[in-house]
Amino acid sequence: MPRNSLGRIIFDGNTPIREVIAALSAPLKKQDGLPGGIALIAGTGGNLAGIVTDGDLRRGLARGVSLDVPVSRIANRAPIVIPDAVPLRERAAYIRNTLLRKGSLKKYVEKMVVIDKSGAPMDVLTTYDIWQTADSRLKRVGVVGLGYVGLTLSLTLAELGFTVFGLEKNKKIAENIAAGAPHFHEDGLSELLKAQRGKNFTLVDDFEGSRSVDVYVIAVGTPLTKSGAPDAFALKEVARAIGRVIKRNDLVVLRSTVAVGTTRDVVVPILEKYSGLSAGSEFLVAFAPERTVEGKALQELRTLPQIVGGLNRASAEAAAGVFSFLTRSVVTLDSLEEAEMVKLINNTYRDVTFGFANEIALIAEKWGVRASKVIKAANFGYERSAVPLPSPGVGGYCLAKDPQIFSASARAKGYRTALLTAGRRVNTNMLSHIAHDALAFLAQRKIAPLSAQALIFGIAFKGFPKTSDMRGSPALEIANALRKSGVKNITAYDTAVPAEDIKRAGLSPARSWQSAVRDADVILCMNNNPDFASLGMKKVCVRRKKPLFIFDGWSVWDEQELPTLPLVVYRNL
C-alpha cells in the first residue's frame, strides 16, 4: 500500500519548476517518514514518469532553465526503482545488480522509489533505509590481510553464506591459500579452506569491477618499530588502496589492533582524502577487534561476544549487522576509541597478570619454594584469587606487543604507565633468568658454550591449543640469548611447526626427539604442547652417560621422577 503522505511530493509533469521548489522547501513532518529533496513526476495512469532531486534542480538552474518551465524538462526519466515485490532483505542486492547491469556501479544513488506492479510509486527509500533492511549476507565482503586474523574471519563469513574476497600481498602466503594449504596451523582451517575456496571465498588482487565489495575488513598486522612505537605503515597503505575504490554507503571495518585514536585520526582522513567522500555520511567506518585465541579461532569466532564501535551510530549498526551473524552477542559501544581500547585492555590485563605470576616465581625460587604449588594452594577454594601459573616468558604476536601499544596510547595523552610497563619488563626478564640458569649449568660442568648442544621443545609461542605461529615466541628469544653467549648448536622439536619453518628461524630441526635428547647438554621446554607429556622422557634420560640440565617450563614431564636421575639437574616453575 502506498505511503499516505506520498501525495505531498507527487507532481504532474507540467507543474512549473517554481512550484516544485516551493513545495520541496516546505518542511516535511516527522510522521510523514519521507526523505527530503525529491519530487516524483506522475505519468498517465498514475505510474512513475520520473523524479527530480535537489541535484537536478541545481543543474537545471546552472544551465539557465527558467523557473516557469514544466518540471518535466529537468526530470530524470530513468530513475532507479525497486519493485515492491522484491523482499526487504534482498533490495540491496537488487540495487547493486541493477547498477552493475547498467555499467554504473560507482554511481551514487541516494534515493530510490518503490513501485507497484503497475509502475505507480509506493514509497521513497534512502540508501541507509536499504542498508538497514538488507540481509548482511547479501553484502560482499573484502578482507585485506589473510594472516591469522583475516583468513579465519574470511572463511567463517564464507561458511555463513557471505560472498568473501580475500586480498593478501605476500605472494607466498597467497600461493599457499590458492593451493588450499593455510600457512599456519589452526584446527579445522584446512578443511574449511578447501570447502569454501572457489565457492563463497575467492582470492583476489584488487577490488575493482566484478570484485567490488560493500564491506571492507582491514586485518593487516600492526607491529612495533625498533623504538617500541606502533607502526601504522601497512595500515596507511591499505587505507589508501581502499580509499581509491570505496563507493558511497560502503562500510570499512578495522580488525587490526591499533593505538587508541588511530581509526579516527589516521585511517578516516586517508579514506576521505583518496575517496573524496565524507566518512559517516557517505561511507561508514567501524572498529571491531579480533579477540580469539590461536588454535581455537574458528570456534571462538562463533561464540565470543563481538565488540563494535562506530564513527557514528549508523556505522556501528551496520558493522553490528555483519558481526551478528557470527555470534548471538554483539556489544555495541559509543565510539571508535572505546572499541579500540577493549582489545588493548584484554591483552594487557593478561600480560600484567602473567607478569605477577612470573614475579612470584622469581621470589619463590629465592626461598626454595615452588611457585606453581603455592599459587595453586592460594587459589584453591578462594574465589577472590585467580592468579595464573607462571610461564617461561609471555609470547605471541599480541601479548608482547599490545601492552606497548596501550602504553603509547597513554603517552599520547601525557600519561606514563607504571603497572603496564612493569608487567612487560618482568615477563621479558623471565627469559633472561632461564637463559642464565642454563648457561650457569654449562659453566659448572665446564662445558664450553661453543661445543654445547642445546635442545628446545616447543618453538611455537604456545603449545595449547596447538599453533604453528612463532611470532613473539619465548623459545626464539631464549635461542637468541644462548647464541649471544656462544651456544651455536641449537636443535628444536615441535610437533605443530614444520621443519622448514624451524630452519627459517635459524634452528636445526630434530631428526628424532630421542636422538636429540641423548645428544643434548641443555633441554628447555618452552611451551605446553600436550604431545610432549607422552614422550617417555625418563626412559631416554636414564640411559644418558653425561650431565643434563632440564628446564621444564610447563611441568609437562614427570617432576617426581626426572629430578631423581643422578645426572639430571631438573628445574620447573
From TrEMBL:
- Keyword Lipoprotein found: no
Q: Superkingdom of the source?
A: Bacteria
* Keyword Disulfide bond included in the entry's annotation: no
Q: Any idea which GO molecular function terms this record carries?
A: NAD binding; oxidoreductase activity, acting on the CH-CH group of donors, NAD or NADP as acceptor; oxidoreductase activity, acting on the CH-OH group of donors, NAD or NADP as acceptor
- Matches recorded under Pfam families: UDPG_MGDP_dh, UDPG_MGDP_dh_C, UDPG_MGDP_dh_N
Assigned protein family: Belongs to the UDP-glucose/GDP-mannose dehydrogenase family.
Entries under PANTHER family matching the protein: UDP-N-ACETYL-D-MANNOSAMINE DEHYDROGENASE (PTHR43491)
The name of this protein is: UDP-glucose/GDP-mannose dehydrogenase C-terminal domain-containing protein
Organism of origin: Candidatus Taylorbacteria bacterium RIFCSPLOWO2_01_FULL_48_100
